[in-house]
Design goal:
The chain is mainly α. Helices cover 47% and strands 0% of the residues. It folds into two domains: 75 residues, no CATH class; 77 residues, no CATH class.
C-alpha cells in the first residue's frame, strides 16, 4: 500500500483534526499504533506541524468521514493524485575510476562524430570545453596515451543519449554549404 507524503506530519494532522482511531491512522501512515498514541499524548512529534492530506490531494474528505463512521474501515490513499517524482537531469557525476577514460571518449567522439558540438560532448560525457580543446589540439597532458574508445563501452554515457545527440547534430553538420558560381564576384 502506498504511504502518504510526510507520514508523521500527516499523522499529526489526522490526530488533531479527525476522530479516526489510532489503528486507522497508523495503518494509513505506515506507523505503529503506539507511535500514533504517543503523538496524541504529545510525547512524539511535538515540533512537527501537521500536514493536511485533504489539501494536497492524498485523500478526500468523504473518505475520512466514511472511516470516522466505521472504526473497522481503513483509509485508502488517492494513488492517482500523488505527484510523480521525475528524474531531473543535472550535473553528471563520473566516478574517480572512470575519469581517466574521458579523454579517450572525447577522442573517439571527435573522430567518429565530428558534427557534435563541444557543448554536446560536455553534456554527453560530463567534461569541460578546455579538456575537449586540449584533446583536439593534442596538448592534453596525457596526449601520448590517449586511445579513442567508445564512451558507451566505457560507461560514460548511454547508447540512447549518444544516438540522440548525433541525431540532433546531423542537420547542423550535414554537407558543406553550396556556393553558386553566379553569386561570386
Amino acid at each position: 500500500m502506498a504511504l502518504p507524503l510526510m507520514p508523521k506530519a500527516t499523522a499529526v494532522w489526522l490526530v488533531e483534526n479527525t476522530t479516526l482511531s489510532f489503528v486507522q491512522i497508523a495503518e494509513f501512515c505506515g506507523m505503529h499504533e503506539l507511535e500514533v498514541q504517543a503523538i496524541a499524548d504529545g510525547e512524539v512529534a511535538a515540533g512537527i506541524v501537521g500536514l493536511d492530506p485533504v489539501a494536497n490531494g492524498q485523500i478526500t474528505r468523504e473518505e475520512i468521514e466514511r472511516c470516522e463512521k466505521d472504526p473497522n474501515a481503513t483509509l485508502r490513499i488517492n494513488a492517482t493524485e500523488l505527484p510523480r517524482a521525475t528524474k531531473q537531469k543535472g550535473a553528471r557525476y563520473t566516478p574517480v575510476s572512470k575519469r581517466q577514460d574521458r579523454p579517450d571518449a572525447i577522442a573517439w567522439l571527435l573522430k567518429q562524430h565530428p558534427e557534435l558540438t563541444d557543448a554536446q560532448i560536455c553534456k554527453l560525457i560530463g567534461t569541460t570545453k578546455p579538456t575537449i580543446a586540449s584533446v583536439r589540439e593534442r596538448t592534453h597532458w596525457n596526449a601520448a596515451n590517449i586511445k579513442p574508445r567508445n564512451p558507451v563501452t566505457l560507461g560514460l554515457c548511454t547508447e540512447a543519449d549518444l544516438e540522440k545527440a548525433v541525431a540532433i547534430s546531423r542537420p547542423r553538420g550535414g554537407s558543406a554549404p553550396v556556393v553558386h558560381d553566379d553569386l561570386r564576384d
